[in-house]
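ZP: hey, is the adenosine-5'-diphosphate complex queued? I don't see it on the tracker
AM: it wasn't, my bad. submitting now with these inputs:
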Amino acid sequence: MKILVINSGSSSIKFQLLDMSSEQVLASGLVERIGEPMGTVKCTMRPGTEKQSALKRDLPVADHQTGMLLAVELLTDKAQGVVGSRADIGAIGHRVVHGGERFHQPTVIDSAVLAAIRDTVPLAPLHNPANLDGIEVALRLFPGVLQVAVFDTAFHQSIPPRAYLYALPYDWYEHHRIRRYGFHGTSHKYVAGECARLMGKPLARCNLITVHLGNGCSMTAIENGRSIDTTLGMTPLEGLVMGTRSGDIDPAIHVFLHRNLGLDIEEIDRLLNKESGLKGICGYNDMRDIHSAVAAGDRRAALALDVQTYRNRKYIGAFMAVLGRVDGLVFTAGIGENDDQVRSRSVQGLECFGIAIDPERNQRRLNEPRLISTDTSAVQVWVIPTNEELAIARETVALVNPQEPMKET
Ligand code: ADP
Protein backbone atom coordinates (compact mmCIF):
# COMPACT_ATOMS: atom_id res chain seq x y z
CA MET A 1 0.00 0.00 0.00
CA LYS A 2 1.18 3.53 -0.83
CA ILE A 3 0.80 6.05 1.97
CA LEU A 4 0.99 9.81 1.51
CA VAL A 5 2.29 11.64 4.59
CA ILE A 6 1.40 15.31 4.83
CA ASN A 7 2.85 17.92 7.17
CA SER A 8 0.95 21.10 6.45
CA GLY A 9 2.37 24.38 7.80
CA SER A 10 1.02 27.90 7.55
CA SER A 11 2.86 28.64 4.29
CA SER A 12 4.27 25.25 3.34
CA ILE A 13 3.32 21.62 2.79
CA LYS A 14 5.89 18.87 3.28
CA PHE A 15 4.88 15.56 1.74
CA GLN A 16 6.29 12.10 1.37
CA LEU A 17 4.93 9.08 -0.47
CA LEU A 18 5.98 5.70 0.91
CA ASP A 19 5.48 2.18 -0.37
CA MET A 20 4.74 0.36 2.86
CA SER A 21 5.34 -3.13 1.50
CA SER A 22 9.05 -2.26 1.56
CA GLU A 23 8.92 0.97 3.63
CA GLN A 24 10.70 2.67 0.71
CA VAL A 25 10.29 6.40 0.17
CA LEU A 26 8.93 6.82 -3.38
CA ALA A 27 8.98 10.61 -3.33
CA SER A 28 9.70 13.42 -0.93
CA GLY A 29 8.67 16.99 -1.61
CA LEU A 30 7.90 20.47 -0.40
CA VAL A 31 5.54 23.24 -1.41
CA GLU A 32 6.86 26.56 -0.12
CA ARG A 33 5.75 30.18 0.18
CA ILE A 34 2.02 29.49 -0.16
CA GLY A 35 0.12 32.76 -0.48
CA GLU A 36 3.18 34.78 -1.51
CA PRO A 37 3.62 36.33 -4.98
CA MET A 38 6.01 33.53 -5.96
CA GLY A 39 6.17 30.04 -4.53
CA THR A 40 8.02 26.78 -5.20
CA VAL A 41 7.00 23.15 -5.54
CA LYS A 42 9.75 20.58 -5.54
CA CYS A 43 9.92 16.85 -5.26
CA THR A 44 12.67 14.25 -5.25
CA MET A 45 11.56 10.99 -6.84
CA ARG A 46 12.92 7.63 -5.68
CA PRO A 47 15.47 9.27 -3.32
CA GLY A 48 18.60 7.31 -2.55
CA THR A 49 18.19 4.95 -5.52
CA GLU A 50 19.90 4.83 -8.91
CA LYS A 51 16.70 6.20 -10.44
CA GLN A 52 16.64 9.32 -8.25
CA SER A 53 15.41 12.43 -10.05
CA ALA A 54 14.01 15.81 -9.10
CA LEU A 55 11.23 18.07 -10.31
CA LYS A 56 10.90 21.74 -9.39
CA ARG A 57 8.47 24.45 -10.40
CA ASP A 58 8.56 28.12 -9.45
CA LEU A 59 5.08 29.60 -9.64
CA PRO A 60 2.57 31.39 -7.45
CA VAL A 61 0.79 29.01 -5.05
CA ALA A 62 -2.37 30.83 -3.99
CA ASP A 63 -3.50 28.49 -1.22
CA HIS A 64 -3.10 25.01 0.29
CA GLN A 65 -5.50 23.43 -2.23
CA THR A 66 -3.42 24.75 -5.14
CA GLY A 67 -0.27 23.55 -3.35
CA MET A 68 -1.62 20.07 -2.84
CA LEU A 69 -2.82 19.84 -6.47
CA LEU A 70 0.65 20.84 -7.64
CA ALA A 71 2.21 18.20 -5.38
CA VAL A 72 -0.11 15.58 -6.89
CA GLU A 73 0.83 16.80 -10.38
CA LEU A 74 4.51 16.12 -9.64
CA LEU A 75 3.80 12.74 -8.04
CA THR A 76 1.81 11.70 -11.14
CA ASP A 77 4.13 13.34 -13.70
CA LYS A 78 4.06 11.30 -16.92
CA ALA A 79 7.85 11.08 -17.29
CA GLN A 80 9.19 11.04 -13.73
CA GLY A 81 6.16 10.48 -11.49
CA VAL A 82 5.96 7.59 -9.02
CA VAL A 83 2.21 6.89 -9.24
CA GLY A 84 -0.19 6.78 -12.19
CA SER A 85 -3.01 8.68 -10.53
CA ARG A 86 -4.44 9.82 -7.21
CA ALA A 87 -6.31 6.50 -7.01
CA ASP A 88 -2.98 4.73 -6.36
CA ILE A 89 -2.70 6.38 -2.96
CA GLY A 90 -4.09 3.96 -0.38
CA ALA A 91 -4.29 6.20 2.68
CA ILE A 92 -3.05 9.54 3.99
CA GLY A 93 -1.34 10.28 7.31
CA HIS A 94 -1.39 13.87 8.59
CA ARG A 95 0.93 15.32 11.19
CA VAL A 96 -1.09 17.31 13.71
CA VAL A 97 0.81 19.26 16.33
CA HIS A 98 -1.73 19.44 19.16
CA GLY A 99 -4.24 16.79 20.14
CA GLY A 100 -5.01 18.26 23.57
CA GLU A 101 -6.21 15.73 26.15
CA ARG A 102 -8.64 14.15 23.69
CA PHE A 103 -6.19 12.24 21.49
CA HIS A 104 -4.03 9.53 23.05
CA GLN A 105 -3.26 7.83 19.76
CA PRO A 106 -3.42 8.26 16.00
CA THR A 107 -7.02 8.56 14.90
CA VAL A 108 -9.00 8.09 11.68
CA ILE A 109 -10.31 11.50 10.65
CA ASP A 110 -14.07 12.06 10.50
CA SER A 111 -16.17 15.14 11.11
CA ALA A 112 -16.14 14.67 14.92
CA VAL A 113 -12.34 14.37 14.90
CA LEU A 114 -12.04 17.47 12.73
CA ALA A 115 -14.21 19.38 15.19
CA ALA A 116 -12.09 18.15 18.12
CA ILE A 117 -8.88 19.26 16.39
CA ARG A 118 -10.54 22.63 15.80
CA ASP A 119 -11.29 22.77 19.55
CA THR A 120 -7.57 22.57 20.32
CA VAL A 121 -6.69 25.62 18.18
CA PRO A 122 -6.40 27.88 21.27
CA LEU A 123 -3.64 25.56 22.53
CA ALA A 124 -1.65 25.72 19.26
CA PRO A 125 -2.82 28.85 17.44
CA LEU A 126 0.06 28.82 14.96
CA HIS A 127 0.15 25.13 14.14
CA ASN A 128 -3.27 23.50 14.33
CA PRO A 129 -5.03 25.86 11.86
CA ALA A 130 -2.33 25.10 9.29
CA ASN A 131 -2.63 21.35 9.97
CA LEU A 132 -6.40 21.64 9.57
CA ASP A 133 -5.98 23.42 6.22
CA GLY A 134 -3.97 20.45 4.97
CA ILE A 135 -6.51 17.92 6.23
CA GLU A 136 -9.50 19.75 4.75
CA VAL A 137 -7.84 20.07 1.35
CA ALA A 138 -6.80 16.39 1.37
CA LEU A 139 -10.35 15.32 2.31
CA ARG A 140 -11.64 17.27 -0.71
CA LEU A 141 -8.98 16.02 -3.14
CA PHE A 142 -9.00 12.38 -1.99
CA PRO A 143 -12.64 11.58 -1.19
CA GLY A 144 -13.09 8.06 0.13
CA VAL A 145 -9.41 7.64 1.01
CA LEU A 146 -8.85 6.84 4.68
CA GLN A 147 -7.05 9.71 6.41
CA VAL A 148 -5.37 9.54 9.79
CA ALA A 149 -4.26 12.28 12.19
CA VAL A 150 -1.01 11.55 14.05
CA PHE A 151 -0.54 13.93 16.96
CA ASP A 152 2.77 15.28 18.32
CA THR A 153 1.22 15.30 21.78
CA ALA A 154 -0.39 11.83 21.80
CA PHE A 155 2.61 9.81 23.03
CA HIS A 156 2.83 12.06 26.09
CA GLN A 157 -0.76 11.53 27.20
CA SER A 158 0.54 8.78 29.51
CA ILE A 159 2.35 11.41 31.63
CA PRO A 160 0.83 11.34 35.16
CA PRO A 161 -0.74 14.42 36.79
CA ARG A 162 2.23 15.01 39.09
CA ALA A 163 4.35 15.66 35.99
CA TYR A 164 1.83 17.41 33.77
CA LEU A 165 0.24 19.74 36.28
CA TYR A 166 1.74 23.18 36.84
CA ALA A 167 1.57 24.56 40.37
CA LEU A 168 -1.04 27.13 39.38
CA PRO A 169 -4.66 27.69 40.42
CA TYR A 170 -6.31 24.34 39.71
CA ASP A 171 -9.26 25.82 37.85
CA TRP A 172 -6.85 27.08 35.15
CA TYR A 173 -6.31 23.41 34.39
CA GLU A 174 -9.99 22.50 34.66
CA HIS A 175 -11.35 25.41 32.65
CA HIS A 176 -8.49 26.44 30.38
CA ARG A 177 -6.64 23.13 29.99
CA ILE A 178 -3.39 24.72 31.16
CA ARG A 179 -1.01 21.76 31.71
CA ARG A 180 2.05 20.13 30.18
CA TYR A 181 1.25 18.36 26.90
CA GLY A 182 4.72 17.80 25.43
CA PHE A 183 5.58 17.63 21.72
CA HIS A 184 7.84 15.73 19.30
CA GLY A 185 5.93 12.66 20.49
CA THR A 186 6.09 10.90 17.12
CA SER A 187 9.87 11.23 17.12
CA HIS A 188 10.34 10.15 20.75
CA LYS A 189 8.09 7.13 20.22
CA TYR A 190 9.83 6.16 16.99
CA VAL A 191 13.40 6.30 18.35
CA ALA A 192 12.30 4.56 21.56
CA GLY A 193 10.90 1.72 19.46
CA GLU A 194 14.06 1.53 17.38
CA CYS A 195 16.24 1.56 20.50
CA ALA A 196 14.28 -1.29 22.09
CA ARG A 197 14.58 -3.30 18.88
CA LEU A 198 18.34 -2.66 18.71
CA MET A 199 18.76 -3.61 22.38
CA GLY A 200 16.79 -6.78 21.73
CA LYS A 201 14.24 -6.04 24.45
CA PRO A 202 10.46 -5.45 24.28
CA LEU A 203 9.76 -1.73 24.39
CA ALA A 204 7.24 -2.38 27.17
CA ARG A 205 10.16 -3.42 29.41
CA CYS A 206 12.53 -0.56 28.50
CA ASN A 207 13.29 2.55 30.52
CA LEU A 208 14.75 5.16 28.19
CA ILE A 209 15.67 8.82 27.99
CA THR A 210 15.19 10.13 24.46
CA VAL A 211 16.85 13.42 23.53
CA HIS A 212 15.54 15.16 20.40
CA LEU A 213 17.91 18.01 19.50
CA GLY A 214 16.94 19.85 16.30
CA ASN A 215 15.79 23.43 15.86
CA GLY A 216 13.27 22.49 18.50
CA CYS A 217 14.66 20.42 21.37
CA SER A 218 13.04 18.13 23.90
CA MET A 219 13.80 15.22 26.18
CA THR A 220 11.45 12.47 27.33
CA ALA A 221 11.57 10.02 30.22
CA ILE A 222 10.10 6.70 29.07
CA GLU A 223 9.17 4.05 31.64
CA ASN A 224 8.25 0.60 30.35
CA GLY A 225 7.70 2.08 26.89
CA ARG A 226 5.44 4.91 28.02
CA SER A 227 6.23 8.61 28.28
CA ILE A 228 6.13 9.66 31.94
CA ASP A 229 7.67 13.12 31.64
CA THR A 230 8.94 15.45 28.95
CA THR A 231 10.54 18.86 28.80
CA LEU A 232 8.24 20.74 26.40
CA GLY A 233 5.17 22.03 28.16
CA MET A 234 1.79 23.48 27.33
CA THR A 235 3.50 25.06 24.33
CA PRO A 236 6.75 24.14 22.59
CA LEU A 237 8.72 26.76 24.55
CA GLU A 238 9.59 25.08 27.85
CA GLY A 239 12.59 22.97 28.79
CA LEU A 240 15.81 22.68 26.83
CA VAL A 241 17.63 25.56 25.10
CA MET A 242 16.55 25.56 21.43
CA GLY A 243 17.66 27.32 18.24
CA THR A 244 15.58 30.43 18.82
CA ARG A 245 13.37 29.40 21.77
CA SER A 246 14.38 30.09 25.36
CA GLY A 247 13.37 26.87 27.06
CA ASP A 248 12.97 27.24 30.86
CA ILE A 249 13.03 30.76 32.25
CA ASP A 250 11.76 32.37 35.41
CA PRO A 251 8.13 33.22 34.55
CA ALA A 252 8.54 36.56 36.35
CA ILE A 253 10.85 37.69 33.53
CA HIS A 254 7.67 38.43 31.54
CA VAL A 255 6.58 40.85 34.23
CA PHE A 256 10.02 42.43 34.40
CA LEU A 257 10.13 42.95 30.64
CA HIS A 258 6.70 44.53 30.68
CA ARG A 259 7.22 46.77 33.68
CA ASN A 260 10.77 47.85 33.04
CA LEU A 261 11.18 47.73 29.25
CA GLY A 262 7.55 48.47 28.37
CA LEU A 263 7.28 45.41 26.13
CA ASP A 264 3.78 44.18 25.36
CA ILE A 265 2.80 40.54 25.53
CA GLU A 266 2.90 39.94 21.74
CA GLU A 267 6.44 41.28 21.60
CA ILE A 268 7.54 39.20 24.59
CA ASP A 269 6.02 36.11 22.94
CA ARG A 270 7.92 36.83 19.72
CA LEU A 271 11.20 37.48 21.53
CA LEU A 272 11.01 34.27 23.57
CA ASN A 273 10.10 32.13 20.54
CA LYS A 274 12.13 33.72 17.75
CA GLU A 275 14.99 35.71 19.28
CA SER A 276 16.05 33.63 22.27
CA GLY A 277 17.72 30.25 22.76
CA LEU A 278 21.10 29.82 21.07
CA LYS A 279 20.35 32.78 18.80
CA GLY A 280 19.57 35.02 21.74
CA ILE A 281 22.87 34.26 23.44
CA CYS A 282 25.22 34.41 20.45
CA GLY A 283 23.35 35.50 17.31
CA TYR A 284 23.47 32.08 15.61
CA ASN A 285 20.73 29.48 15.81
CA ASP A 286 22.35 26.86 13.59
CA MET A 287 24.70 24.61 15.53
CA ARG A 288 27.11 24.37 12.58
CA ASP A 289 27.49 28.17 12.59
CA ILE A 290 28.06 28.07 16.34
CA HIS A 291 30.92 25.57 15.97
CA SER A 292 32.53 27.71 13.24
CA ALA A 293 32.21 30.78 15.44
CA VAL A 294 33.68 28.95 18.45
CA ALA A 295 36.62 27.84 16.30
CA ALA A 296 37.13 31.49 15.31
CA GLY A 297 37.30 32.51 18.98
CA ASP A 298 33.72 33.79 19.46
CA ARG A 299 33.19 33.68 23.24
CA ARG A 300 29.43 34.15 23.09
CA ALA A 301 29.11 31.19 20.76
CA ALA A 302 31.13 29.11 23.24
CA LEU A 303 28.81 30.32 26.00
CA ALA A 304 25.69 29.38 24.01
CA LEU A 305 27.07 25.86 23.52
CA ASP A 306 27.87 25.68 27.21
CA VAL A 307 24.41 26.85 28.29
CA GLN A 308 22.66 24.39 25.96
CA THR A 309 24.73 21.34 26.87
CA TYR A 310 24.59 22.16 30.60
CA ARG A 311 20.77 22.27 30.39
CA ASN A 312 20.79 18.92 28.54
CA ARG A 313 22.94 17.39 31.27
CA LYS A 314 20.76 18.79 34.02
CA TYR A 315 17.62 17.24 32.51
CA ILE A 316 19.33 13.90 31.84
CA GLY A 317 20.13 13.84 35.57
CA ALA A 318 16.58 14.81 36.45
CA PHE A 319 15.08 12.11 34.25
CA MET A 320 17.48 9.51 35.66
CA ALA A 321 16.16 10.40 39.09
CA VAL A 322 12.58 10.13 37.80
CA LEU A 323 13.17 6.74 36.17
CA GLY A 324 15.54 5.05 38.61
CA ARG A 325 16.76 2.36 36.24
CA VAL A 326 17.72 3.60 32.77
CA ASP A 327 18.47 1.08 30.01
CA GLY A 328 19.16 3.47 27.18
CA LEU A 329 19.82 7.10 26.35
CA VAL A 330 19.04 8.05 22.75
CA PHE A 331 20.18 11.13 20.82
CA THR A 332 18.24 12.08 17.71
CA ALA A 333 17.34 14.91 15.23
CA GLY A 334 19.72 17.29 13.40
CA ILE A 335 22.04 18.09 16.31
CA GLY A 336 21.56 14.85 18.24
CA GLU A 337 22.39 12.74 15.17
CA ASN A 338 25.32 14.78 13.87
CA ASP A 339 27.03 16.64 16.66
CA ASP A 340 29.48 14.54 18.67
CA GLN A 341 30.57 17.56 20.72
CA VAL A 342 27.05 18.35 21.91
CA ARG A 343 26.53 14.67 22.73
CA SER A 344 29.75 14.31 24.71
CA ARG A 345 29.24 17.57 26.58
CA SER A 346 25.66 16.65 27.41
CA VAL A 347 26.80 13.52 29.28
CA GLN A 348 30.09 14.88 30.60
CA GLY A 349 30.71 13.83 34.20
CA LEU A 350 27.82 11.38 34.24
CA GLU A 351 30.10 8.31 34.45
CA CYS A 352 29.27 8.11 38.16
CA PHE A 353 25.63 7.60 37.13
CA GLY A 354 26.53 4.79 34.74
CA ILE A 355 26.71 6.81 31.50
CA ALA A 356 30.02 6.53 29.66
CA ILE A 357 30.45 7.21 25.97
CA ASP A 358 33.32 5.94 23.87
CA PRO A 359 34.99 8.96 22.18
CA GLU A 360 35.90 7.04 19.04
CA ARG A 361 32.40 5.57 18.61
CA ASN A 362 30.89 8.96 19.33
CA GLN A 363 32.93 10.64 16.59
CA ARG A 364 32.04 8.16 13.84
CA ARG A 365 29.95 9.86 11.16
CA LEU A 366 27.31 7.42 10.00
CA ASN A 367 23.75 8.06 8.98
CA GLU A 368 22.46 4.97 10.73
CA PRO A 369 21.62 3.86 14.27
CA ARG A 370 24.72 3.25 16.33
CA LEU A 371 25.82 2.53 19.88
CA ILE A 372 28.26 5.15 21.20
CA SER A 373 28.65 4.05 24.83
CA THR A 374 31.56 2.02 26.13
CA ASP A 375 31.11 -1.73 26.56
CA THR A 376 31.02 -1.25 30.34
CA SER A 377 28.58 1.67 30.45
CA ALA A 378 25.56 0.65 32.56
CA VAL A 379 23.33 2.80 30.33
CA GLN A 380 23.58 2.13 26.60
CA VAL A 381 23.90 5.39 24.69
CA TRP A 382 22.56 5.37 21.14
CA VAL A 383 22.41 7.72 18.18
CA ILE A 384 19.26 6.89 16.22
CA PRO A 385 18.12 8.94 13.21
CA THR A 386 14.51 9.94 13.66
CA ASN A 387 12.02 9.36 10.86
CA GLU A 388 8.72 11.01 11.64
CA GLU A 389 7.31 10.41 8.14
CA LEU A 390 7.91 6.67 8.39
CA ALA A 391 6.43 6.67 11.89
CA ILE A 392 3.30 8.47 10.63
CA ALA A 393 3.03 6.09 7.66
CA ARG A 394 3.32 3.05 9.98
CA GLU A 395 0.64 4.43 12.30
CA THR A 396 -1.59 5.06 9.27
CA VAL A 397 -1.14 1.52 7.94
CA ALA A 398 -1.93 0.17 11.40
CA LEU A 399 -5.31 1.93 11.28
CA VAL A 400 -6.02 0.81 7.71
CA ASN A 401 -5.31 -2.82 8.62
CA PRO A 402 -6.21 -2.94 12.31
CA GLN A 403 -6.13 -6.74 12.31
CA GLU A 404 -2.39 -6.76 11.48
CA PRO A 405 -0.16 -5.93 14.44
CA MET A 406 1.92 -2.82 13.76
CA LYS A 407 5.61 -3.42 13.13
CA GLU A 408 7.50 -2.93 16.36
CA THR A 409 8.98 0.50 15.74
P1 ADP B 1 13.90 20.56 12.87
O1 ADP B 1 13.66 20.70 14.33
O2 ADP B 1 13.61 21.81 12.10
O3 ADP B 1 13.34 19.31 12.24
P2 ADP B 1 16.48 19.33 12.44
O4 ADP B 1 16.20 18.08 13.20
O5 ADP B 1 16.67 19.24 10.98
O6 ADP B 1 15.47 20.48 12.79
O7 ADP B 1 17.79 19.97 13.09
C1 ADP B 1 18.27 21.21 12.69
C2 ADP B 1 19.53 21.48 13.48
O8 ADP B 1 20.46 20.44 13.23
C3 ADP B 1 20.20 22.79 13.09
O9 ADP B 1 20.37 23.59 14.23
C4 ADP B 1 21.56 22.37 12.65
O10 ADP B 1 22.50 23.18 13.29
C5 ADP B 1 21.74 20.99 13.21
N1 ADP B 1 22.64 20.19 12.38
C6 ADP B 1 22.40 19.64 11.17
N2 ADP B 1 23.51 19.02 10.70
C7 ADP B 1 24.47 19.19 11.64
C8 ADP B 1 25.84 18.80 11.77
N3 ADP B 1 26.44 18.09 10.82
N4 ADP B 1 26.49 19.17 12.88
C9 ADP B 1 25.89 19.87 13.85
N5 ADP B 1 24.61 20.28 13.80
C10 ADP B 1 23.91 19.94 12.71
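AM: back. The first strand starts at residue 2 and ends at 8.
ZP: great, adding it to the tracker
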